[in-house]
């Protein structure tokens, strides 16, 4: 999940987090979900790029890397739920027999994919039949909010109180390919026109409504904010596989940790470094 003007952040993630991961431990396809920058962007900050410039640079970025999914909407408080819905559809476009898990993460999350693969095999091997079993993995909380689709597709989906269920905090979570396929089968009934801060809860309501037999793994030690950050703080150690609510400078410090150096393969000498398309004048 990304915002158009996160040019530097996507460059860092692409070059330092989601590349040179050992294919012996995990294989994956990366996609950034990006909506249009609103036209009012930068009006009070003249040293920032205009919305038109940002949107143009994102198109150029995609032409170079081919890993951006353009969401036909303007970035606002409603768009994140649409992004999550479209990401689910994108994952489900691949037959469930050809992949194991659909993993989504916020752009302010630092992820150790190889460590995540090892952790899943070690902690819950019973969840690792993903092409036949419904399962979801992340840091879980509970809620009772439910939604039903509005009759008018342009109107907000209707919210109502219902039974309690668990939902994954949106910093990052995994769905088995079987679960992704199941939700895609009922995608015409999935509400997704709800505002930001309800997007995490919405995911849990989908699963509770249409796949209640899903096996849930709540992994507080693996998925969390670092100390003094956010609302889900937990110590960062070898068990940490996703660290949330951090900026790019903090990500650089994490990437440089010698304890985690072996998580990524060395860059080839001829590998051209990724540079940002945006610089302050």
Automatic annotation (TrEMBL):
Q: Name one GO cellular component term.
A: Golgi membrane
Pfam families (UniProt xref): Galactosyl_T
Mainly resides where?
Golgi
Q: What class of enzyme is it?
A: transferase
Q: How does it sit in the membrane?
A: Single-pass type II membrane protein
Which InterPro entries would you find in this protein's record? Glyco_trans_31
Q: Which UniProt keywords apply?
A: Glycosyltransferase, Golgi apparatus, Membrane, Signal-anchor, Transferase, Transmembrane, Transmembrane helix
Which EC numbers does the record give?
2.4.1.-
Gene3D superfamilies to which the protein is assigned, alphabetical: 3.90.550.50
Supply one GO molecular-function term.
hexosyltransferase activity
Q: Where in the cell is it found?
A: Golgi apparatus membrane
- Give the family this protein belongs to, as stated in its UniProt record: Belongs to the glycosyltransferase 31 family.
Q: Which PANTHER family match?
A: BETA-1,3-GALACTOSYLTRANSFERASE PVG3, BETA-1,3-N-ACETYLGLUCOSAMINYLTRANSFERASE
What is this protein's record name?
Hexosyltransferase
């Amino acid at each position: 999940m990304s915002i158009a003007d996160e040019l530097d952040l996507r460059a860092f993630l692409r070059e330092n987090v989601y590349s040179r991961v050992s294919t012996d431990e995990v294989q994956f396809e990366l996609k950034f979900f990006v909506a249009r920058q609103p036209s009012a962007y930068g009006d009070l900050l003249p040293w920032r790029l205009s919305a038109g410039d940002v949107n143009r640079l994102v198109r150029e970025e995609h032409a170079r890397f081919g890993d951006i999914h353009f969401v036909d909407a303007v970035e606002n408080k409603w768009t994140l739920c649409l992004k999550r819905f479209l990401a689910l559809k994108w994952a489900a476009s691949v037959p469930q027999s050809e992949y194991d898990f659909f993993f989504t993460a916020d752009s302010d999350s630092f992820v150790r994919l190889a460590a995540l693969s090892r952790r899943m095999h070690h902690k819950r091997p019973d969840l690792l039949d993903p092409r036949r079993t419904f399962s979801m993995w992340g840091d879980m909380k509970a809620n009772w909010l439910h939604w039903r689709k509005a009759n008018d597709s342009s109107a907000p989906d209707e919210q109502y109180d219902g039974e309690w269920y668990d939902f994954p905090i949106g910093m990052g979570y995994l769905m088995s390919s079987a679960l992704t396929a199941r939700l895609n089968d009922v995608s015409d009934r999935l509400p997704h026109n709800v505002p930001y801060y309800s997007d995490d809860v919405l995911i849990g309501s989908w699963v509770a409504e249409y796949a209640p037999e899903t096996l849930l793994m709540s992994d507080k030690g693996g998925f969390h904010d670092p100390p003094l950050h956010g609302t889900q703080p937990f110590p960062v150690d070898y068990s940490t596989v996703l660290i949330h609510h951090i900026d790019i400078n903090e990500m650089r410090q994490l990437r440089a940790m010698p304890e985690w150096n072996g998580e990524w393969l060395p860059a080839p000498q001829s590998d051209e470094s990724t540079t940002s398309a945006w610089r302050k004048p």
